[in-house]
Amino acid sequence: MEVEADWDATSLRVHVLDRGPGLSDDRLARAGYDFVSTKGETRGLGLALARAGIERLGGTLTVARRAGGGLSATLQWPRLDPT
Known about the structure:
There is one protein chain. The protein is of the alpha+beta class and 83 residues long. The chain has a single domain (2-78), classed as Histidine kinase-like ATPase, C-terminal domain (Heat Shock Protein 90), CATH 3.30.565.10. Helices cover 20% and strands 33% of the residues. The chain is built from 2 helices and 4 strands, in the order ββααββ. The protein has helices at residues 25-30, 46-56, and strands at 2-7, 11-17, 60-65, 71-78. The protein has a 4-stranded antiparallel beta sheet. The protein starts with a strand and ends in a 5-residue tail after the last strand.
């Protein structure tokens, strides 16, 4: 797993990257919503809670496939004007 961060004049982004097996099209489309899990023994709330917290702060959570395999989760927040 890798974690990267970058920013520009308008936003801050944190990228969480892995090289795991990835997700099916159906699971990728539903990633980050309640009760969606790739593991049978879990409730599927981890990404949903993360998404809710990020959105509450005006941000977004995007999950996508990586070239070469794995996934990226990008957390993005607007930068605040310091004035």
